[in-house]
Amino acid sequence: MSPDLSCLVHWILFLPLVVAAFSAVVLRRAGTIAAWLSTATAFVIAYLAWIVLSQVPGDLVWHVKLASFGQMELGFGYLLNAHARLMLFVVSFVAAWIHLFSIGYMADDEAKGRFFAGLSIFMFSILGIVVADNLLMTFIFWELVGFSSYMLIAHYFDKDFAAAASKKAFITNRVGDLGFILGLAFCLQHFGTLNFADLAAHQPAGGWPIALGALLMCGFLGKSAQFPLHVWLTDAMAGPTPVSALIHAATMVAAGVYFMARIFFLMTPEVLEIIAISGASMAALGGLCALAQTDIKKSLAYSTLAHLGIMACALGLGHPELALLHMTMHAFFKATLFLGAGSVIHGCHHEQNMLQMGGLLKKMPITATAFIIATLSNCAVPFFAGWYSKDAIIEAAFHGHHYVAFGLLAIAALATCLYSARMVRLVFLGSAQSEAAEHAHESPWTMTVPLVILGVVFSLAAGFATSFLIPANATVSIAEPLHEMAFSFTAPATWVGLLSLLAGWAALKFYGIFPGKDSLQVFSPRTYHLLEHRWMDSFYEWYLQKVQRRVAEFIAFLDLLLINGVAGRWIAAGIPAVLGYFTGRTLHRGQTRGYALWIILGTLLLAWCFLAR
Amino acid sequence: MEHTTLAHHLILAGLLFVIGLTGVLIRRNLLVVYMCLELMLTAATLALVAFSRFNHLMDGAVLVFFVITVAAAEVAVGLALIVALFRQRGTVQSDALNSLHD
Amino acid sequence: MQISPSVLLLIAVYTPILTGLILLTLRKLPKSFASGFALGGFAIPAVIAPWLLAKWLSPNTEIQQFISDGPWGFGMGLNGLGAPLLAMTAFVGLAAGIKALTQEVEARNTYLGLILFMFGGTLGVFATTHLIGFYFFHEFALVPTFILTLFWGGEGRRSAAMQMALYLTAGAMASLAGLLIALDASGLSFNEATLVRVVEALAEGPHLPQATAALILFGLGTLASLFPFHSWAAPGYSAAPTPVSMLHAGALKKFGLYGIILLGASSLHLSQGTLGNWFLGLAVANVFVVGLICLVQRDLKQLLSWSSVAHMGPIFLGIWVAGTNGKAAGLDAAAFLMVAHGLSCAALFLLGNAVRTRAGTYRLDSLGGMASRSPILAALFIAATMASIGLPGFGNFWGEIGVFLSLGGLPLWLQAIVASTVVISAVYSLRAVAATFFGPATEALEERYRVAPFGDLGLAEIGAASLLLGASLVIGFCPSIITRSTNPVMTDIAAYSQRAEIKLSKPAPQRAPQSPATPAR
């Protein structure tokens, strides 16, 4: 790798770390300075990432040895192939605009310094995952991303639910990391290396072992909120909205998809099958559950779950490029949606219940426009950004003869339009349902500019951009399906799309029937409850309280009783007691007989010792 | 009757020793304990004489004189102590002499 | 003027001991004077030891430069494992000393003097070359521990001190028996019996019976809280005064592991046969069972004490695995974890005590919402917690991940049980953090704030905690500082453990003549 390019990557990676340390130690009180410093850094990084992206293609590699445990080498290095450079740009670009948004959103927050230090640490961590060249380094930054998420969700730490949510996120991620660690050990044991390039070069004769793919997949399950480790994502909405936008929609959860695309060559067909079905089911379920949420952020969280499921399904069907493409598009429009939600929440003075909003189209026109455009992208309306990727995936399912996945994805597409329409209807159309919505006003420029850039420009045009503007050879594997897809209207995906759009238009009317109430809840409370109840969370709660706590208390009790009690006290006291009893009977009575007895016994013992040699 | 061997003498000495030892451990009267001690010494003497005879050496016999002298001295001192003890305590039963009891 | 490293080593070890002696004899010394003295006694080793480590790592130094004859006939010198442990002990000792100086206690000079003795003894453990010397220094440091716990400890100190004394003395006796048997088997005279020479002599000679290996393993293991002889640790650390807990859990406990690695792992075949299976089982139990016990703790200091027991498990496993496959990776990782755990454990005890002095209690259900009143304390405590659960960036991560990676040959279910500590430790640690710092303040805390308002951490405590966490960050970012030092020693030890194995097929050779001094680096 040419020296100046590796230098660039050093800057990209370590600048946010330095800024974070500086902010945390020095700028705790000077929140505004910290905010602008972080944002400026983010834009610098985005610019540098653009330079890296537009460079001459070919993998860029740099490696240094950190330390070694015996023969085990611990290395640190960069592997910048086409996927990495694209992801680098997407992440830093979206993050830069979200930083700008946060300046406006967190303007009256007292702990701004801490918040922006956290955002910078997060940047360091996610960029590390993107550029890493071996599994161990990926794991290191994987955990760091989990820590950043923990810190940022717990920003409002004096609320119980924020504290609980941050704990839940970290621990659930760690359960996935457990599988990741086992995968690391397996890989090292069987192949002697953790380096991506080395692994790719040495494909074993009988194919990769299934355990390797399955174990590494566990990390993906945790980070990208797939079943059964999806329970943390909705709770993570307790953090400030920019955090939800950046971490839990655009980048961190997508890091899992990116990782899977990077190690795609290690996956066996069985593992991919599982991922496909699990992802598709998640897509369908997530979309349906989004219909039963009244909190705007929670609804968007379920939407994210659904899209992550779509990305997982794409991976499982054997198209990692499509998954990455969807991840890119999703980053743009989902970030816009979250930022729009943030703008709405800010405008309505921190009201998050959608049923209390309404009629904001007139009060907050810029936000509404960006939001609606992003929604159209979400629903995969033709030629919007989301259409390119989502329909390509549905196509791939059909043409790959995975009809189960196709069916589930179709349901997901349908549900997407339904909940999107619901959201737009409840928030922006109709009339204001509360005082707060009455007095809503448009947000300041720091918040609307990112909305416009990400929403209007990118959610609309990203599809064009990737197919025409970015040189085809930079993202060659991604651009191809776009060129093929552009004008085929007879494909099954198109039919699914049309049906969904019709359903969406119907939903717009449906949800306007009862102002201030959810129409589905009114018409069919059972269905609503079915979708609203968090089944997996209840299961986990039951497990934690009834099983884990009881087992742990029982074991602690056993330890106290048997080891501390019996072994420690009884044996340690018992032996002296037994010995003492015998000596007491003969020796401590003050009788010469006893003394004589022990003298003779002692003599015999000595004699035996000496004579038995 | 065949000749007695070294083994016979040693067995006799051993028996005497054990009888003396048992007496020391079991009997309560100090004087009897003392007599049993003497019995143990006698047993040792017998063993010495037996070895001396069967190995055709004089060493054992000479040592017997030393043993007898030591025994005599010991008896003199010991009996004096017992008499003094009897004057103090009025008894020579070892059960009663337990002021070192914890 | 160049002071030679050997002289500096002597100064580092004996300054605390001499200072402690002065404080113990001159009990009427005025407070500020005594504080100055004590601070000097704590700080001087902390300045010297990192310098010594740096010197040790630089390519031009010879081992001989560090060797000298100390008083009491026990020679002083460093080896690859001892140098980082010495530096860690120095930092932990300084932090413990700062904590002790800020505490309000009766008979302060005696208290400080005894802690200085403990500190000096612990330094001596890692700085001496003699086989019996390192045992001697350990006992020298242990006796003040009992005295300090008994007289200056918290609740339940009498039974805790008693239990600690019984267990640790029994363990020490067993290990002394083992050490003496090893010394005898090596054929060296008392004066020549440096650790290194004994190890070499044992490696070349016939196998010692497994009973000796068991004595060493369980004797030294008790001192390092190996399951099931761990019951002394939790009540002991809970009841002991905080500087004592910091020094013991952080530094002195590593004596047992140091001995097991240098002596046991190399020559005594701890990982083979029945003993090896028991060792594996007990180490796994140490990780998993004690982890479960941590889950139900309701008192912050007890939680920290139990978690320090649980963290010994991966170290034992690293030692075990190196004995089975002859690769030094597990040993390197175990040594790394020893250093890193000392730093993080001491930091946690320090900050936990800061919580106690503010909130008046350690009980988790009475604590809550302290982050708004003491943000710096909260930030440092969370950092220390993250270090302890193995977040990358801190040293503990490298140790733990190294051990997990080196266990790749075990069956998958066993690896899963061992690696589950990652989840279990996160659960109980984060639960403690949330209960203490997050959420709204409890009524008990509000009440306490009205009666005795408290603020954030003072400069001294911030300094002490930052020292420990900073050191952990340094080795977290540059793990080669530790691995460059331990790698040569551990490679040799792993080779020894396999070399003697080969001899099983050959008849036992005669006692080899004494080899010239070629100490392993």
Describe the overall structure.
- The complex is a heterotrimer of chains A (613), B (102) and C (521).
- Chain A is mainly alpha-helical.
- Chain A has 2 domains: 531 residues, no CATH class; 74 residues, no CATH class.
- Chain A has 26 helices and 2 strands.
- In chain A, helix 2 packs antiparallel against helix 3, helix 14 runs antiparallel to helix 17 and helix 17 crosses helix 22.
- With 102 residues, chain B is an all-alpha fold.
- Chain B has a single domain, classed as Orthogonal Bundle (Helix Hairpins).
- In chain B, 75% of the residues lie in helices and 0% in strands.
- The mean pLDDT of chain B is 91.
- Chain C is mainly alpha-helical and 521 residues long.
- Helices cover 73% and strands 1% of the residues of chain C.
- Chain C has a two-stranded antiparallel ribbon with strand order 1-2.
- In chain C, a hairpin with a 5-residue loop joins strand 1 and strand 2.
- In chain C, helix 3 runs antiparallel to helix 10 and helix 6 packs across helix 7.
- Chain C is globular and about 70 Å long.
- The C terminus of chain C is likely disordered.
